[in-house]
User: Which sequence fits this backbone?
């Protein structure tokens, strides 16, 4: 389990009885992929948030044009 945008996120895997090795193999392969996807999402979210913070408020721009 991890946190993403202050929300908990988790992945659950199920398999038939006796498939423990299968689950371990899938988890071993899937974990690094999910980690890299989560990092990419966080990076993109931060970039978008930074761009939105730099945009001037539409109301403020309109006020300046009227003045």
Assistant:
């Amino acid at each position: 389990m991890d946190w993403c945008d202050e929300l908990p996120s988790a992945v659950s895997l199920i398999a038939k009885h006796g498939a423990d090795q299968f689950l371990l193999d899938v988890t071993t392969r899937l974990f690094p992929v999910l980690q890299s996807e989560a990092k990419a999402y966080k990076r993109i979210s931060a970039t978008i948030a930074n761009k939105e913070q730099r945009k001037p408020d539409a109301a403020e721009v309109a006020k300046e044009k009227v003045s």
About this structure: The mean pLDDT is 81. The first helix runs from residue 20 to 54.
